[in-house]
Amino acid sequence: MAGKVVHVEIGAADTDRAQGFWSGVFGWQVGPPMSPEMDYRMFQSADDQGGAIVATEQQGNLTVYLDTEDIDASTAKVRELGGEAGDKVPVPGHGWFAPCKDTEGNAFSLWQGDESAA
Question: What is the CATH code for 7-58?
């Protein structure tokens, strides 16, 4: 079903502290930083849902990714209905995302899985 939450990014000034909090609350097994240049720590919350704790200076909101089967059609629909939609961005080998805002200014991202994304 389109619109299912598939990924959540949790911004953190202190990723170790955030990892302790979220793994403590829900028992998530949070992975190590993906690279020395990017403190992006992935976790799985269900078979088809997960997220990441990410080091950032902008905390205070979760970034929610909602599933779509056709990201181009969905971004067009967001714009048609008065929202904002950025261009789709590839996540090589995984899929595409597009940052959006609804008519009330709430930020979210669309996600389309696609292993051929480059």
Answer: 3.10.180.10
